[in-house]
Amino acid sequence: MASLTDAEIAAANARGAEKKAAVPVVVSVKYDRRVGRVVIALASGLELAFPPRAAQGLEHAHPADLADAEISPSGLGIHFPRIDADLYLPALLEGFLGSKRWMAAQMGKRGGASASAAKAAAARQNGKLGGRPKKIPAAT
Questions:
Q1: What is the pTM of this model?
Q2: In a domain, 125, yes or no
Q3: pLDDT per residue as tens digits for the range 4-39
Q4: Count of structural domains, the chain
Q5: Beta carbons within 8 Å of 79's beta carbon, 6+ residues apart
């Protein structure tokens, strides 16, 4: 097994400090049985709440499994010891901000904007056939 050098450890610590400075840390986490949500409070004052079934590792958890969540020493992670599941705050912020419709629209924009030789050829071929067919009005 290769051992880490002091320079590698220092570089890893620097990357961790940069990440911690860029993302507010978790100050509390709880499972709210009343609404069926995991609620995470951040140092910035923002609160995140989501159903456990929406998070990988928590999708089959029972309410009792979520009761004793722990915050990691860095403040960027949450651990659920009863089911040995972990959540990473920066990943939650990237994946859960915005509605599903908004996120799908963002993904659609990226996919629709792709330019490939195959896509261009298909568009040319479709144009030779007259493009999309006209809609026929329904008979009244």
A1: 0.58
A2: no
A3: 899 998 998 888 788 777 788 899 999 999 999 999
A4: 1
A5: 69, 70, 71, 72, 85, 86
